[in-house]
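Researcher: Last one for today. Full complex below.
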Amino acid sequence: MKITDLKKQQGSFLLNVKNAQFEAGKVHGIIGANGSGKTTLSKIIMGTLPYDSGSIDYEGLTDRDITMTGQRPYLMHTSVYNNLIYPLKVRNRRIDENLVDYWLEKAGLQDKKKQYALSLSSGEQQKLSFIRALIFKPKLVIVDETLSNLDPDSADLFERLILEQQQKDPITWITISHQLVHIRKICDMVHFMEKGNIIEKATPQEMFVNPTNPSVIKYLASTEVSFKG
Amino acid sequence: MFENLFSDYSLTVGMLDSIKVTLIMSVCSTTISSVLGVFLAIMLEKHNFKGKKLVVRINRTLMGAPPVVIGLLTYILLRKKGPLGDLRWVFTIKGMVVAQTLIITPIICGMVYSYLVRTAPKIRAFAKTMGADKWQTDKLILSEIKNEIYFSIVTGFGRSISEVGAVMLVGGNIKNRTRTMTTAISTLKSAGEFEAGIVLGIILMIMAFIVQSLADYIRKEATEDENY
Ligand SMILES: Nc1ncnc2c1ncn2[C@@H]1O[C@H](COP(=O)(O)OP(=O)(O)OP(=O)(O)O)[C@@H](O)[C@H]1O
Ligand SMILES: [Mg+2]
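Model: Here's the assembly. Have a good evening.
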């Protein structure tokens, strides 16, 4: 997917992405300070927010290939099960109960299948929205801080889930997170956003171990995690 | 006490028929208003057009408009020499249903519209991430606010059974034909039959109580939903 001269004015904030490329089949990370425009960009890519000018080349991806889970995922006013199968119903696919159970188990929600989705804890809600985004085999998944409330074990589990998926059947991921350890482990490419633009794109190694861009150095210095060594 | 329903003056006033008329009228007008109100609310939320703000404000005004004024307008339209006089709906249940539909539709439309304004954009964005088409998205929005829709319908029904002014003007309070429970009460009062009036009043209150309990039950469900 390729973005050229994308502009969007939002109040006093201007999103202005000159050039960005998200190669297919790779895990992309977007990092950057609060308010740098990560969520705005991802909504535009998803198509839920219109943009003012510029272009996005989806390279053949259609509406039904792309999905996104947000910072505060939307859950339908119904059971966990009904939430999970919704994307399958939308596509008129047969409901494979084994597949449903497989994903519920992955998320540790097998006992909560019949529970009312909005009564789940916030971490459980995030897990549910994550597996709901994967169950229909999308080609591009945007994950906007969806996994920020997970306990360390669950976070590890989901990292492994993403890596597993990439080995089996690679899809394109755009993950947004402030947890740089997580970004570093799963991403093939990291994009750094500042003031509405992507100003640096590098492998995790280059971005975190040998950063050259002064803004990136400053951003990393302010985070408490050390990546050296 | 309820033997009053079968006494002489009950027959004279037509108390039993007034219960029937009230139910027929309220069920009909609430059903029509629900379909119209929900449909208009969806259209209003979905489309942006010049003057939309004004339409919303007029809707809000109609929600609080005195029913007797709507009754008067309906009467003027339906009376023999009025523009719709050929229908011969004045002093019939049909005419009363028209007046009540004009009163209740704005209430249901306004309530549903305000729920939609709050929730539809979120639901629409979510539906997009799930790959839903336009039709599936509309279906999802309706099912997501179904509790709120039930609640506004129940509110409309409550208004309908308790309204006096418009049904009096348009229906004419004709015994056994267009006399409702509320207009029967005012007739009984004029005749000095307070005891019978109170009986009818109590039945009306019980009906309102049942409807209100239903509304509370639905609202409780709805707020539990938001309690996460
Ligand atoms: N509807 C809006 N009206 C005006 N300004 C907005 C609107 N939505 C977002 N903004 C502004 O756009 C900027 C970018 O917001 P965005 O949510 O994209 O940041 P972000 O990089 O995702 O931040 P975070 O790390 O906190 O999630 C912010 O300054 C925000 O205040
Ligand atoms: Mg954000």
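The radius of gyration of chain B is 20 Å. Chain B touches chain A at residues 122-126, 128-133, 136, 140, 143-144, 147, 225-228 (CB under 8 Å).
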